[in-house]
Amino acid sequence: MYSYTQYSRLRADLEAGACSCRALVEQCLQACETHKNLNAFLDLYADEALLRADQLDAQFRAGRNPGKLAGMVIALKDVICYKDHEVSASSKILKGFKSLYNATVTERLLQEGAIIIGRTNCDEFAMGASNENSAFGPVLNAADPSRVPGGSSGGSAVAVQTGMCHAALGSDTGGSIRQPAAFTGTVGLKPTYGRISRWGLLAYASSFDQIGPMTLTVADAALLLEVMAGPDQHDATCSTQTVDAYTLALDEAPEKPLRIAYLGDALDHPGLDTEIRLRSFDLFETLRSQGHTVEAVSFPYLDYMVPCYYVLTTAEASSNLSRYSGLTYGYRSPAAHDLESTFKRSRSEGFGPEVKRRIMLGTFVLSSDYYDAYYSKAQKVRRVIRDKTAALLEQYDFLLLPTTSTPPFRLGEKASDPIAMYLADLFTVQANLAGNPAISIPAGTNSAGLPFGMQVMAGNFKEAAMLRFSDYLSRLLP
Amino acid sequence: MSVAYEAVIGLEIHVQLITQSKAFCADSTAYGALPNTQVSPISLGHPGTLPRHNRSAVDYALKMGLALGCNITKENHYSRKNYFYADLPKGYQITQFNTPICEGGGVNIRLKDGSRKTVQLIRIHMEEDTGKSMHDQDPRDSLIDYNRAGTPLIEVVTAPDIRTGEEAYAFVTEIRRLVRYLDICDGNMEEGSLRCDANVSIRPIGTSTFGTKVEVKNMNSISNVRRAIDHEIERQRGILDAGGAVAGETRGFNALNGTTFSMRSKEMVNDYRYFPEPDLPPLILSDQYIAAVHKLMPELPETLFNRFTAELGLSEYDAGVLTDDKATAAYFLEVVKHTANYKSAANWVTVHIRGYLNEHAVGIDDFPLSGKRIADLIALIDSGQVSNSAAAQKLFPAMISHDGKSPLELAESLNLLQTGDADLIESIADEVLASLPQKVEEYRQGKTGLLGLFVGETMKRSKGKADPRKVNEVLLKKLGA
Q1: Could you tell me which of A174, B260, B323, B343 has the fewest CB atoms within 10 Å of its CB?
Q2: A351, A372, A393 — which closes off a domain?
Q3: Residue A329: which domain range?
Q4: Which tens digits make up the pLDDT trace of B13-57?
């Protein structure tokens, strides 16, 4: 049994032949079998993964370098395209659909020797905060199977939490990587908007979506970001900003005292769990004792963030999901008999209730009578939030907040109350509205043994500094 | 009592750009390929695909705007126009809504009566085309060809400045000529690469409020644009004269009987939910960039027309024919580089060369003789060495089949060179007059029309080599004696 924590500790053993890729894959497959009940995977590519492991082992034996990720076992959230493999966004409407091409991230992982082990369950079209919106059943939290793992990248989070893979990719539109990472005691990174190509990511809300790694350690998140980030001719919104060597600066304590802010309103928010609040203040104290400045700042937009986020993301989603029409691919209703019934029936039967709710909401806010009242206004609010966040991150090195206001909640607890569910994104949507990078790192467990996370935000494209600080922080945390 | 009405017409013209690849992906745009063979996952709107800018589509739109004197938008945003239809794979069309690449500008048209008019433009914007639904290929199902989906278009929208079908005809003709000059569209209305919709309303002359607007579609030729509009004006006049009200609707044109028919009522209007396309960052056009595109543009037909009439002294008719297409104008310009006899050059291009091209059904680009050689031919005629008719009937065909030899060499070998040799002409003239004493007598008694007979006979006996002017001169002298 190999106890995996981070890839850099494994690499020497692989090169020396002390450990084989095949053994690693077998071990992951064993974990998948053991934790089958958690419903983390929709598909396992066991034979392919073993075959690839053997090829990589042969290369290691021949003394060649099979890539920066050779032997790393990775799962893809079911919204990321992998050529000739099914991708369904955990929706009935795409059941059985196989992608004709690789997402840019998939391509880059494969080029560096990663082993793709399967695709993970998630909320349908990445819409949700509990993974209860999957057409293929909920994912359960390994820390307490009566509780949700968070969402929408719940399957990826649980796969990493239980060793079913070494790392997984998620997508984050309003917290869909960070919130499940917090709920499962894993690391979840949402890079700056435009840092990683979205080519091959099934769009939920295009101006918010980012792919990111979910890992056990900050070091692995840095390594995967290094491989996946950078310009891509397929994605016009992908940045040409140079990719830093994110892995190099880790393991070093900060050279100088840092200026850290937290949102006073967030820590005072009535919805914030008492234990998480206390533990956050403990962490602030620890940082102060290390010579850093930690200050409360006023950010009077907290209550506007979730509404603004939902107006804009549903608007984009209502358009992005129009292509699922039953016409050229995906689910077509057997009752369809002409063009209109093909659209109406296929979409009515193919989409789940939460997706339909968001399509309707988005259609409404874009309709000509309400466009100015909702969509235009929300865009203005987004600009204010972006500018104020950027100003704050000029003034301070980092923003530090709990990732979520509560520990993992029970299955069904919020399923009937969409507003309560939407508030699960309270602390995470800011980074998607503003576009800046953010990461959730494990902050231990509460008295009931439930994991929670701390979130670090940094200025645009300051992932290197953010990862370095997060790594330092993770050594201060339990 | 019948009221006098005027029509108020605005046109929307879709111009399909002849870029190599589609507006937002690398698929080919070639016309006529087998259905659904030019479709990548992007064209088909597959999950996870994203659009990317095609720079040449932008350049083409820019050229059109510059040619029409539009204001160019520096910061271009794209929008999504959302609706469900079978030929729209993504469920939305990428278009420009708030920031069309061109605003303002105008098109100058010439009407048959010689008058001129400027039709103002509201905007030109960039967008992508849809696929094509085919309802007549299968007895049960409609079929869809997505080859066209994503082909770049520009839409030219005029102000309601047009008043008659003839003006619309002239406008579309001018647009077609221009897109062909600019090499941005093949201008083929039958194949749908140029499509025109007309918004037509009528109102009593002297009033300034607009009547109810009817949109007319499906006009697949420029003359059908005129026919459809003329018919629609008459139809609306008939309704108003009968005391009725025109219904706001979309009507199609039936080319078989020249009438329009109702397609759908305007009350069922779609809410397209336009919003900024989040997958494409704004496209910024710098002054430098615009200037660089401007530099690549050819001289425009209107400029050439004005030059040909004002500087070269050509008739409006000749100037019109010569500027009809860019290749003809370019050929003419090549000829006049080598000759100052502009009228003769125009005549050779518009009559003889065009005749040859029509007869052989080829374009001027495939015409074998260089402009320089036509200029040489004109010089030979002007020097009196070859007659006009010999040049047109014998030398010109010979030059085409023996390209390479100079017109002079060919004229020599074909024995077409005219002689100005007075002795020779006099001796032939004497022979002719001697052989026709009766006619000479009649001439002298006043039948001067017989001069042509003597000239013709002299020319014939000289085997066409005598200079007809000289022959005339000699005969008059002899007959007058």
Answers
A1: B343
A2: A372
A3: 306-372
A4: 999 999 999 999 999 998 889 999 999 999 999 999 999 999 999
Q: Are residues A340 and A462 in the same domain?
A: no
Lowest mean pLDDT among A10-19, A178-187, A224-233, A249-258: A249-258
Last residue of a domain, one of A319, A340, A372: A372
Measured from the Cβ of residue A304, the count of other Cβ atoms closer than 10 Å reads 15
Burial A89-127 (b: 16+ CB within 10 A, else e): bbbbbbbebebbbbbbbbbbbbebbbbbbbbbbbbbbbb
Neighbouring residues of A176: CB distance < 8 A, sequence distance ≥ 6: A122, A123, A126, A129, A151, A152, A153, A170
Q: Which residues of B touch A198 (CB under 8 A)?
A: 48, 50
For residue range B405-434, list pLDDT tens digits in order: 788 888 888 877 776 677 778 888 888 888
Is B91–A207 a contact, with Cβ atoms under 8 angstroms apart? no
| CATH level 3 topology of B422-480 | Arc Repressor Mutant, subunit A (1.10.10)
Q: Which ipTM score applies to this complex? A: 0.96
Distance from CA of A132 to the nearest CA of B (A): 22
Q: Is residue A385 a contact partner of residue A304, using CB atoms and an 8 Å limit?
A: yes
The verdict on B275 touching A (C-beta cutoff 8 Å) is: yes
Q: What is the pLDDT of residues B78-110, one digit of tens each?
A: 999 999 999 999 999 999 999 999 999 999 998
- Domains in chain A, number: 2
Predicted confidence (pLDDT) per residue in B253-265, tens digit: 999 999 999 998 8
pTM for this one? 0.90
Catalytic residue among A176, A197, A239, A280: A176
Domain ranges of chain B: 5-289, 299-413, 422-480
Does residue A240 sit in the same domain as residue A176? yes
